């Protein structure tokens, strides 16, 4: 009986596809954001919308909004492509002020997950 791994390195997950419940491709994992207060992974950075790596927009998706599918080696996000297109995003060269509590609250609200205040 296969078991899910308890620990994975970030490098094994970077580049993984993100799909929705309709099995549509929503992009791929580019990076992770670590909460320096408690050491947990707070956000996955998802790239979406470009063509062959050009024009991709980045999105910080709360980890609580993602589910890891170890069998298909992808993440599942319960959002439509249109919802993701309208999500607050940023460019690779212009990251948001991640220290801003207003930014964190808006991201969690958009994805419909509770923000654990630190």
Sheet having the most strands: 6 strands, mixed
Q: From the coordinates shown, what is the CATH architecture? A: Roll
The domain count comes to 1
What would the principal axes of the Cα set say about the shape? globular
**Widest beta sheet: strand line-up:** 4-3-2-1-6-5
The SS-based structural class is alpha+beta
Please count the beta strands (DSSP E, at least 2 residues each).
Answer: 6
Helicity level:
10-25%
Radius of gyration: 14 Å
In DSSP terms, counting alpha (H) and pi (I) runs of 4 or more, how many helices? 3
Describe the structure.
By secondary structure, the protein is α+β, with helices and mostly antiparallel strands. The protein has a single domain, classed as SH3 type barrels. It contains 3 helices and 6 strands; from the N terminus they run αββββββαα. Strands 4-3-2-1-6-5 form a 6-stranded mixed β-sheet. It is globular, with a radius of gyration of 14 Å. The mean pLDDT is 88.
Provide a short characterization of the protein structure:
The protein has 118 residues and is of the alpha+beta class. The protein contains three helices and six strands.
Task: Give the key terms.
six-stranded mixed β-sheet, 6 strands, 118 residues, 3 helices, SH3 type barrels, alpha+beta, globular
């Amino acid at each position: 009986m296969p078991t899910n791994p308890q620990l994975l390195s970030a490098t094994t997950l970077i580049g993984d596809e993100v799909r929705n419940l309709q099995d549509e491709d929503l992009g791929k994992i580019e990076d992770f954001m670590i909460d320096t207060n408690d050491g947990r992974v707070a956000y996955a950075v998802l790239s979406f919308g470009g063509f062959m790596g050009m024009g991709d927009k980045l999105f910080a998706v709360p980890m609580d909004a993602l589910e890891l599918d170890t069998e298909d080696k992808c993440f599942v996000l319960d959002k439509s492509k249109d919802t993701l297109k309208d999500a607050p995003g940023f460019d690779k060269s212009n990251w948001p002020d991640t220290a801003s509590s207003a930014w964190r609250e808006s991201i969690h609200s958009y994805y419909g997950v509770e923000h654990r205040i630190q």
